[in-house]
């Protein structure tokens, strides 16, 4: 130890002068210094063991004694027994769910140097398991997972990631191996010192494997050979079940992920919360996903294997698809101290946010910057508004033909409001403001071009006037402006032909299907009316 | 109770085979009437070991070739006599469950066939367990009780009408003193826990067309109800009716799922599979098959049209009688159960594999010519 016992005793005495310690508590030094490692920068970690049932706070008290930073934790015997029981339960269920922090606490107590009340410490350390087996098994599990991840990344041609995972796998395997020989301290950074200690004790195998680990680290930088050499070393460390075999990596479905095409654009909803829109190549890769199929086989059949590979890798990273090891369950993130959740990319910054066919992708996958339900609501409102624009235009024409000025004015206002609603929906606004305020809202939004907002305001003024012959032209100008803005980015169809109108109705069905899944708050009853009538416009004249 | 001598008609069929095997496993002597297929294959694909009729006995299944459409089930007088002698129960599971057959086929197999089986049972007053369908209710909406049959309903398919008429044959025999019980399964699908199913028929065919994108829109409602019942539950309930016939006599049992599935459930479950296409349900009043693209129109007219009424039905089957007798009750519901069924289809390659469509096949055939 880098601190002798006399110094330790003095450190403890002075520390206890500064903190409240339960009477009669046991005291140990734990952590790197107790394990025989540490350096001048290492903290001194004292654990006080209270012979009671209290719940002592998890956070340590930090004091500075004799120029050292000292952390003091207090646990009751009940707390440490509960930790030990929790580890036992996790071990019985496999190592996958055993948290690093929990195992670390148990290991540190058992590797600690006793300073006070040996009997209390002895009782605190009671445990039915073998620490070496538990730590070794736990690291073996994480090594296996990391190596599988490396193989999967290699299959997906993500070589940089593959090598990183392979390196983690090798180090975890080494930690498993040294743990099985008594070096159970979990902290990864002391691996070399743990090997040194085994070598110093006369373990020739430890020397050989340490050298191989170093050799593999220096070996071929990437590609199949690098993965193979890491996998071989992992196996030599006694971790099985993760050979460098591409056909072991299978596709799997991830719970809570669903597919919703809108028009020809594929949207994927994650956990009913996030909407991802896929680019055309990514959509093709997405449609090739079938549970249980080897990734390599899917890529072999892809039109553009490299593109499909990078799309699948992205799907995996953001948790849209699962990669599984044949007969071995999901390939999960294997960094015990890091979160295992899939990542979420930053949301798309495109404006408008959505068109008739939903979002638009930059690259393989883009996250729509709206919660899923709001996305569905805005999309439905946009389809509905566009349809109502057409409907109001027919009303306006009919009223003008019949010389019904006030009917025409009402129809014109309705057209204006629906054009504004279509525009605001495309910008992602949902719910929409009431008609009375909608024209004014346009000018307040940076997403709406100023000239369009000004045009809407001018049209509103026109509609108050007495020149009805101007109204259709002015309204068409506005509608064209709205549709140009939206179409410029994402609109798939116009309303210029019967075929386009049919396509719009089909897209309406797509939105309804998604909205029904998300139980979205949008005008479903009105939409149902639309679909019941097959898109027929009640005021439209025959032949149109 | 054990050691009954039971005749099972339609024993090569999905339900008949499973019932025959289970009854034999319970120690009964099973005489399995089969038409063309002399092999009894259980739902999980295991072939049931059979012995010649002369060596029939408790715990064994014997196949008898026959034809329910014919008088005396198409048997010789001697074989008919042998078969009928000492019978304790008849389970009548023979029927065509296919949709889209000619009416004559339904009439012959399902109506006349039932009449012939009823006659055999009536001659010796052998208790008859008749396997019907919950859809004898036709296109009724709302709660359908087990003791209801003829309420003036309209039928969506000739299959339903034929089964309705078959039940009337059974009811008429019961009125003259034949002990009968009727089991009415809804749409029979895979087992509750694994989704396994021996034959991919009926709704499975529809599913295939949906998921392949052959048919992209159908007239129907998202809140229409499909009642899916696990095949293992249907077989278990029929066996229970056989075993506890004294309690079952004179009653009808809806063999139905834990709760019906909406078409929204189906849509949502299909969406969990990236490789599946999911159909739209379009209001029937505005649906126009003629407006479908040519390939889709062919599939629609040849197959989907037969099932069309199922996409707008909203029947809920009461199953109080079944609940009081069944050895266990289905518990799998909603999207979770659909996932179990779809997963099985994917696992065995029935769904999720691209196949050439009709248009493609015709185009290829055209090229060869």
What does this structure look like?
The complex is a heterodimer of chains A (544) and B (369). Chain A has 19 helices and twelve strands. Chain A is α+β, with helices and mostly antiparallel strands and 544 residues long. Chain A has four domains: 5-129, Beta Polymerase, domain 2; 133-244, Four Helix Bundle (Hemerythrin (Met), subunit A), CATH 1.20.120; 248-333 and 344-367, no CATH class; 373-532. Chain A is elongated, with a radius of gyration of 33 Å. Residues 488-493 and 530-544 of chain A have low confidence and may be disordered. Chain B is an alpha/beta fold. Helices cover 38% and strands 15% of the residues of chain B. Chain B has twelve helices and 15 strands. Chain B has helices at residues 14-25, 77-84, 103-124, 158-175, 203-211, 231-243, 245-248, 263-270, 294-307, 320-325, 334-347, 358-368, and strands at 5-9, 29-34, 61-65, 89-92, 128-131, 142-144, 180-185, 187-189, 217-219, 225-226, 228-230, 252-255, 261-262, 280-282, 315-317. Chain B has a seven-stranded parallel beta sheet, sandwiched between helices. In chain B, α1 crosses α6 (231-243), α3 runs parallel beside α4 (158-175) and α8 (263-270) packs across α11. The mean pLDDT of chain B is 92. Classes of the chains: A alpha+beta (544), B alpha/beta (369). Chain A binds chain B through residues 253, 257-260, 268, 286-292, 321, 506, 509-510, 512-513, 516-517, 528, 531-536, and chain B through 217, 222, 264, 267-268, 271-276, 278, 280, 282-283, 285-288, 343, 346-347, 352-353.
């Amino acid at each position: 130890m880098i601190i002798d016992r006399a110094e330790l005793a003095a450190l403890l005495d002075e520390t206890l002068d500064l903190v409240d310690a339960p009477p009669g508590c046991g005291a140990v030094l734990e952590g790197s210094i107790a394990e025989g490692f540490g350096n001048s920068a290492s903290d001194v970690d004292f654990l006080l063991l209270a012979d009671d049932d209290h719940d002592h706070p998890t956070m340590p008290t930090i004091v500075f004694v004799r120029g050292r930073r000292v952390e003091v934790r207090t646990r009751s015997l009940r707390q440490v027994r509960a930790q030990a029981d929790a580890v036992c339960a996790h071990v019985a269920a496999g190592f996958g769910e055993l948290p690093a922090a929990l195992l670390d606490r148990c290991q540190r107590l058992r590797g600690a140097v006793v300073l006070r009340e040996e009997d209390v410490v002895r009782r605190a350390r009671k445990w039915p398991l073998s620490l070496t087996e538990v730590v070794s098994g736990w690291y073996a599990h994480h090594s296996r997972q990391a190596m599988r991840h490396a193989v999967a990344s290699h299959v997906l041609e993500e070589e940089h990631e593959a090598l990183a995972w392979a390196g983690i796998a090798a180090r975890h395997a080494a930690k498993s191996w040294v743990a099985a020989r008594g070096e159970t301290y979990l902290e990864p950074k002391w691996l070399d010192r743990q090997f040194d200690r085994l070598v110093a004790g006369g373990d020739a195998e430890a020397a050989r494997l340490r050298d191989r680990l170093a050799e593999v680290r220096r070996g071929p930088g990437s590609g199949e050979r690098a993965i193979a050499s890491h996998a071989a070393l992992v196996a030599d460390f006694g971790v099985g079940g993760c050979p460098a075999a591409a056909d072991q990596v299978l596709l799997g479905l991830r719970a809570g992920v669903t597919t919703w095409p809108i028009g020809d654009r594929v949207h994927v909803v994650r956990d009913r919360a996030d909407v991802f829109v896929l680019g055309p190549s990514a959509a093709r890769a997405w449609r090739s996903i079938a549970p249980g199929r080897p990734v390599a086989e899917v890529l072999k059949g892809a039109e553009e294997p490299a593109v499909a590979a990078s799309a699948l890798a992205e799907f995996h990273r953001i948790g849209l698809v699962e990669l599984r090891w044949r007969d071995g369950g999901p390939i999960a993130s294997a960094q015990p101290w890091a979160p295992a959740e899939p990542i979420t990319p930053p949301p798309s910054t495109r404006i408008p946010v959505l068109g008739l066919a939903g979002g638009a992708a930059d690259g393989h996958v883009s996250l729509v910057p709206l919660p899923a339900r709001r996305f569905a609501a805005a999309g439905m409102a946009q389809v509905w508004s566009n349809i109502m624009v057409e409907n109001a235009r027919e009303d306006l024409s009919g009223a003008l033909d019949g010389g019904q000025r006030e009917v025409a004015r009402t129809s014109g206002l309705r057209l204006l409001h629906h054009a504004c609603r279509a525009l605001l929906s495309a910008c992602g606004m949902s719910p929409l403001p009431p008609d009375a305020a909608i024209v004014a809202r346009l000018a307040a939004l940076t997403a709406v071009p100023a000239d369009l907002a000004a045009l809407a305001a001018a049209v509103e003024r026109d509609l108050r006037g007495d020149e009805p012959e101007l109204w259709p032209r002015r309204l068409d100008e506005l509608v064209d402006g709205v549709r140009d803005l939206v179409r410029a980015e994402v609109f798939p169809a116009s309303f210029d032909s019967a075929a386009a109108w049919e396509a719009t109705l089909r897209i309406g069905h797509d939105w309804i299907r998604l909205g029904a899944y998300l139980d979205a708050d949008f005008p479903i009853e009105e939409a149902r009316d639309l679909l019941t009538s097959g898109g027929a416009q009640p005021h439209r004249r025959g032949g149109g | 109770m054990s050691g009954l001598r039971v005749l099972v008609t339609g024993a090569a069929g999905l339900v008949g085979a499973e019932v025959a095997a289970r009854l034999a496993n319970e120690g009964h002597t099973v005489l399995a009437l089969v038409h063309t297929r002399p092999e009894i294959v259980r739902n999980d694909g295991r072939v049931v070991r059979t012995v010649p009729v002369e060596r029939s006995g408790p715990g064994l299944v014997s196949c008898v070739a026959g034809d329910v459409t014919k008088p005396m089930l198409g048997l010789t007088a001697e074989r008919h006599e042998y078969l009928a002698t000492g019978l304790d129960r008849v389970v009548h599971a023979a029927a065509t469950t296919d949709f889209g057959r000619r009416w004559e086929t339904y009439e012959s197999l399902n109506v006349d066939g039932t009449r012939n089986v009823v006659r055999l049972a009536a001659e010796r007053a052998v208790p008859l367990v008749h396997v019907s369908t919950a859809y004898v209710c036709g296109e009724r909406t709302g709660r359908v009780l087990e003791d209801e049959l003829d309420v003036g309903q309209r039928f969506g398919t000739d299959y339903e009408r034929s089964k309705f008429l078959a039940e009337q044959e059974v009811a008429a025999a019961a009125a003259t003193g034949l002990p009968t019980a009727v089991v009415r399964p809804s749409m029979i699908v895979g087992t509750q826990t694994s989704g396994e199913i021996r034959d991919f028929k009926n709704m499975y065919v529809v599913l295939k067309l949906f998921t392949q994108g052959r048919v992209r829109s159908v007239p129907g409602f998202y809140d229409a109800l499909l009642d899916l019942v696990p095949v293992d539950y249907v077989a278990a309930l029929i066996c229970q009716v056989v075993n506890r016939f004294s309690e079952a006599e004179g009653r009808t049992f809806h063999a139905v799922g834990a709760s019906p599935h909406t078409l929204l459930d189906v849509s949502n479950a299909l969406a969990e599979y990236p490789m599946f296409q999911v159909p739209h349900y379009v209001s029937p009043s505005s649906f126009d098959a003629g407006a479908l693209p040519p390939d889709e129109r062919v599939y629609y007219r040849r197959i989907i049209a037969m099932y069309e009424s199922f996409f707008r039905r909203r029947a809920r089957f009461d199953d109080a009688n079944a609940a009081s007798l069944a050895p266990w009750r289905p518990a799998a519901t909603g999207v979770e159960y659909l996932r179990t069924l779809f997963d099985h289809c994917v696992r065995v390659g029935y769904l999720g594999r691209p196949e050439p469509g009709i248009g493609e096949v015709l185009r290829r055939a055209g090229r060869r010519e």
